[in-house]
Task: inverse folding
């Protein structure tokens, strides 16, 4: 079946603008995760959804970042008033149910803030 | 303190040789899981292998095996008979926490280059 998909694949925006990143998990997967990967770095955990609820938002770097998930499927990560330090690849992953399951990653969205 | 430590930022290995990528971890949880992911230049994270903290046998998946030494808190990845396509970044990760409050923490990665 289809894997995790993310859109857009690339986003270039001006400092101060809002951006919205989308993640479509693997069908039937109830757990969904957002990570950020800065150039040459490892992955930084942002937020985890179990169904539509987010039990752990502790990784969100600031109140400019928010995420939601509707219908237990698609998730959107919104960054308001983007800053240059927000430039990174934003990766989404899903797993079948328990977060103990293996996570399957999407191709990522490369965000560049000018 | 770092939760996951990968001490080899880069490695060069001759094709067909075996390679060991180091990973040590730090947790006070009794139940945790260890993962290895491969990230080729395309950017996608590819799951390779998983080891649960209570698993007594070392995990194996084809050419990949995980050398799990619990007392030393190490979870090294061994790739046998390396191939050119193995050139990529490799990340070790650890899942810890109780259900509904889990986190996956990644190391900084090792860039593996296979030389023909």
Result:
């Amino acid at each position: 079946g289809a894997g995790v998909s993310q859109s857009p694949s690339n986003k270039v925006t001006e400092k101060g603008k809002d951006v919205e990143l989308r993640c479509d998990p693997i069908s039937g997967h109830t757990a969904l995760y957002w990570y950020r990967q800065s150039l040459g770095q490892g992955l930084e955990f942002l937020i985890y959804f179990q169904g539509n609820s987010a039990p752990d938002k502790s990784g969100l770097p600031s109140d400019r970042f928010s995420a939601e998930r509707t219908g237990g499927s698609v998730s959107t990560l919104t960054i308001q008033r983007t800053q240059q330090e927000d430039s990174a690849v934003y990766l989404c992953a899903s797993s079948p149910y328990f977060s103990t399951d293996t996570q399957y990653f999407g191709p990522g969205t490369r965000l560049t803030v000018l | 303190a770092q939760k996951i430590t990968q001490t080899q930022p880069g490695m060069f290995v001759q094709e067909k040789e075996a390679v060991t990528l180091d990973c040590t971890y730090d947790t006070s949880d009794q139940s945790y899981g260890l993962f290895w992911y491969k990230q080729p230049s395309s950017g996608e994270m590819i799951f390779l292998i998983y080891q649960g903290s209570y698993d007594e046998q070392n995990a194996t998946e084809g050419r990949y095996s995980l050398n799990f030494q619990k007392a030393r808190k190490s979870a090294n990845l061994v790739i046998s008979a390396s191939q050119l396509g193995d050139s990529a970044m490799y990340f070790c990760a650890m899942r810890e926490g109780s259900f509904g409050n889990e986190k996956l923490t990644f190391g900084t990665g090792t860039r593996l280059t296979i030389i023909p």
